Amino acid sequence: MSPAVDPTPVPVTDPNPDPHRVPVTELERIAALGWRGTTVERLGGWLLRAGSGFTGRANSVLPLGDPGLALPAAIAHAERFYARHGLPVAVQQPDAGPGTAAADLAAELDRRGWSTSDPVLVLVAPLAQVLDRSPAADVLPPAALAARPDAAWLSGYLYRGAPLPPTAVDVLLAADRPVFASLVLDGSLAGVARAVVDEGWLGITALTVDPGHRRRGLGCHLVGELARWGAAQSARSVYLQVDGGNAAALALYDRLGFRRHHEYRYRRPPG
């Protein structure tokens, strides 16, 4: 069973919000709705997430505010949580302004010698702009959309270049009504992607194009298909995460109008 991270929606007062002006912690809270651990525990303003080790986002602490404990006690609590789940403790650390709870945590982890991963970029765009830049292609078929990933979809999604572990399905389904897009060309699976809509935001994840079908505009087509689905679900803005070193993906998203909102890094204890 996948617990809701925060079931209380935030009222939308601006019908055309600027996605770049949303605070970092607010966007991270919304993104956490769309990609959860299979177990989620709250510690004050922290989310402790465990998902059998599949993906960093589903298996790390997300600090969205004050944990309600002194930092040494809060970190010890997180260590016990991950030990119970047979996982190493990790923290997903978004950009933090000076004087914030996140900045205090970052300083404490620095003092303890925790390592810092390469950055993951969080990109955003107005949905209307993405729709304008990814119109339906006459030469490409529409993507098939499903509420669950079938065996073909799972074989088409390579996480960091590797096949998925059996536990991945539980994490992929741990959201409110996710949709799984598959694109078939010439009788073979050419690409897959996953999407969710939470509080007016379309979140696109797991976008993968088969190496034999690249450089044919399929990534843009899949994003457009999910954008059209998101518009039908009343989404107004789009977010996605991408490795800071993935030049090809960054070039695609730049063409579609995505811009950097913030970045995050994973922090892990020495050894």
Any descriptors?
single chain; 271 residues; alpha+beta; Aminopeptidase; 2 domains; nine-stranded mixed sheet; three-stranded antiparallel sheet; 8 helices; 29% helix; 27% strand; disordered N terminus; N-acetyltransferase domain-containing protein; Acyl_CoA_acyltransferase; acyltransferase activity, transferring groups other than amino-acyl groups; Rv0428c-like_C
What's the layout of helices and strands?
Blueprint: H1 24-34, E1 39-43, E2 46-50, E3 61-63, H2 71-84, E4 91-94, H3 101-112, E5 115-116, E6 120-126, H4 127-133, E7 144-146, H5 151-156, H6 168-172, E8 179-185, E9 188-198, E10 201-209, H7 218-232, E11 237-243, H8 247-255, E12 259-268
Parallel strand pairs: 10-11
Antiparallel strand pairs: 1-2, 2-3, 4-12, 5-12, 6-11, 6-12, 7-8, 8-9, 9-10
Principal-axis shape equals: globular
Distance between the termini: 33 Å
Mean pLDDT: 92
Order of helices and strands: HEEEHEHEEHEHHEEEHEHE
By oligomeric state, this entry counts as single chain
Sheet of most strands:
9 strands, mixed
Number of beta strands: 12
Instruction: Give me the CATH superfamily of the largest domain.
Output: Gcn5-related N-acetyltransferase (GNAT)
Domains (count): 2
Under the CATH scheme, the architecture of the largest domain is: 3-Layer(aba) Sandwich
Which class best fits the helix and strand makeup? alpha+beta
The CATH topology label of the largest domain is: Aminopeptidase
Estimate the strand proportion: 25-35%
CATH class wording of the largest domain? Alpha Beta
